[in-house]
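User: My advisor, Dr. K., asked me to get a structural model of this assembly before our group meeting. I'm new to this, so sorry if the format is off. These are the inputs:
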Amino acid sequence: MTESTLTPELEAVVAGAAAAAPAYAALTPAERARVLVALGDALEAAKPRLVEIAMRETGLTEARLNGEVTRTAVQLRLFSETVMDGSYLDARIDYADPEFVLGPRPDIRRTHVPLGPIINFSASNFPFAFSVLGGDTASILAAGCPVIVKAHSGHPELSDATAEVAREALRSVGAPEGVFNLIHGREAGVAVLKDPRIKAGSFTGSIGIGRLLTDIAAARPTPIPFYGELGSVNPVFVTAAAIAERADEIASGLLTSVAGSAGQLCTKPGFIFVPAGSALPAAVAAAAGEVVEHRLLDPRIAQSFNERRDTILATPGVTAVIPGGVRFDDAGHGWASPTVVSVSLEDFRAGHQGLVEEAFGPLTILVETPEGTDLAALMPEFYEGNLSGTIHISADEATGTTANATELRALVTALAKQVGRVLFNGWSTGVAVTPAQQHGGPWPATSNDASTSVGTSAIKRFLRPVAFQNTPAAFLPEALRDENPLGLPQAISPAGQSGDWGSQYRG
Amino acid sequence: MTESTLTPELEAVVAGAAAAAPAYAALTPAERARVLVALGDALEAAKPRLVEIAMRETGLTEARLNGEVTRTAVQLRLFSETVMDGSYLDARIDYADPEFVLGPRPDIRRTHVPLGPIINFSASNFPFAFSVLGGDTASILAAGCPVIVKAHSGHPELSDATAEVAREALRSVGAPEGVFNLIHGREAGVAVLKDPRIKAGSFTGSIGIGRLLTDIAAARPTPIPFYGELGSVNPVFVTAAAIAERADEIASGLLTSVAGSAGQLCTKPGFIFVPAGSALPAAVAAAAGEVVEHRLLDPRIAQSFNERRDTILATPGVTAVIPGGVRFDDAGHGWASPTVVSVSLEDFRAGHQGLVEEAFGPLTILVETPEGTDLAALMPEFYEGNLSGTIHISADEATGTTANATELRALVTALAKQVGRVLFNGWSTGVAVTPAQQHGGPWPATSNDASTSVGTSAIKRFLRPVAFQNTPAAFLPEALRDENPLGLPQAISPAGQSGDWGSQYRG
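Assistant: The format is fine. Below is the predicted structure of the whole assembly, which you can bring to the meeting.
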């Protein structure tokens, strides 16, 4: 089981993480919460120094990066609350029932246990929130698993500096050695992913690399879950009534959402389906003056975005609403100002191989749909899965009593089949970290659409249920004891009742 | 998306299931519950006729098969209660919070939606409970997904007869056409598993076939979850004090568990670790007269079990406690009486390649461990994952205050890392269908150890979370509405609180 083709350095990392796993899993909720709070505090304390490195390495703005550090620190603290709350353990107690419908049933209790060491592949576009101490690391550590972070090549210095902050914070609270690790290089990441001691992987990045890693995880002698957050075009549907009500507000919101962080967000709205001949394109054009150019993350992404933009602009039927563009500086960095184009549904269909793919950068496509278009049928025609789908409607339509209410309901149902998050009258960028959040969606948006990578449910990716049958109290995990020492919610099935019928929550 | 290499017959089946999916998903909980109850009632009404076919095709006893039909019918009804209860939807409501720690947060609500058409590969050894209308089908239909059952080649006539019962029951309650389908043949099953309209698979069977199908599901252009329940040896640990207290009771219980259904159960205890020189082997030998020979499912399984038994008996150091054996009748059927052998831990280690594999049939191995053996370290030495792990202790040891309590706790922790269910002073065969049940375990026990194939949580395999952000009430699913028309538990995060901290259940 421990045979390995790792380099001595990587072997030490993986062996250290594996050795730390039992001790870390055995920490009390309060101790594990303390680890997370210490990391959040340390990260925030190091903000000025880390943001300075991040600006240089990623080209993202100081305001955005400052906000991202805050979000990342708060996220670590939120997960400490998740750990203390304990409802993520989904503790269930079925009392023994001599009269059970299928004959005497034993006492069965179920909780969740941490999987063990996890590898997390960092993202380029969130150097804090989806990187070394980001949401994946926070949920891995919250679940009670050691983490090995594979640094993104786009911000190696920041990754090392953040890791040093993390190590010092972990030492300060006496966390087991080996709980947190950072490695560099794609080959190193793949080698670790293949190691039998690694029990799951998480990833944020492209469909291509995501597919590669998903396949590696699935083909291991012991397959493991791989949680990849890959690509998404996040379609938006805007009704005629919404445009009549607030074209300027929608135009301005769209442009802010598309231009923010130079459009390098997995939730950037990529396609806006609008009624043909509406006032929205003109309103968008009028709002163009609001945004300034923004450096793209790295020269490779800039080149690739520039080519994608050329392809789209050269597609027959495509008109520039806001031309935008990419300017390259002497260091090879690309500075983008947002591009918005429009195209008729007919031309979109005709050129769809060239148009439907995600453009990673500040570009969006208004697709003008003729009256009578079956909106619910549009998405399945072009896409399998997406992270989000957005609908803009008028105040009147929000009552659900207008003539098009049935059509709108069909659109909601269709979107719910293809996305992880349906939203109204807002923008998909900016994903709140809350218990009900769902940041995931059918392939290729993610490699596992039963999970979320944002929100406190993200912790569930790194846990596994275990049942205890007729287990004496002295040998039960605390989460499952009658006296409920952790004070967490326990779903109780008393004797004399079957199924979930009548389960009570206590705690 | 609908290109297909299916035969016309299979294309009709898959197209029918896909067409039925939206209508079936749209049924109210009460309507879906009615479908499940109708299936349970119809199955039980057809019991005499179906059991007669099953006896002929599987060789299982009338008593066992009658009990299995009851269990399967009750299971369908239990899932109707799960559907009505609604807690499986894990409905969450985070109210908008203008003061949220990361800035104003929108209203976010989350529920679960059915995945779509599912293929379920039936098992040979449970012609009812893990076959056409078994636990997988029940949880698939309860989740709101159409099912395509691939019949097991061991009981084709029974599969057809059960399917006819199902179709009639579905017609009687007006369920959408195409919700339930039966196909025959491994190639047909593989072709359907590869079809893009199929959204998940479930399977009960061997590690070899399970690996093959898991790999096919993972390698699709759109990978899908595959829930395989594969192989398990279900280790048992018996303390010296337990043997001193009740050797005869343990011996008799063990033999009943190993001999029941001719040992053809995935939860059959395969290895019993006992203190060297204990009275248990003699007690087992004395209990041998209790059991009679039992037909094995089919000639192939009988041949394979017979060879496995020969290999084990010929391994150096192995002694027959109860020789048992297989007698072949003129039809080629094998009739087995149980075999129990013992071997020292040293000889077990020496011959372990030949001994550790699952023997599918009525055979178990007593491994005699010398005093001072680190029991917690034993399992990881030989196995990755198992469905269950059992510990037999004395009444005194159950208090957790004896000298070996620390050692026992370490064993519990070690088992919880490698199995889905830890049990005390009982036998792993006979898996209760309850909310807390966990029938699953790390590879190769299952292909997805975050899930269970028994118990009401099994429904979760066929659902996917979807969040609704700032969605007007008129467009929200009923599960997420403030007035809670379905009366299900909703986890509420009010404004002014972060994380899971202070979530309230209502409903």
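One thing worth pointing out at the meeting: The two ends of chain A are 41 Å apart (CA to CA).

User: Perfect, thanks a lot.
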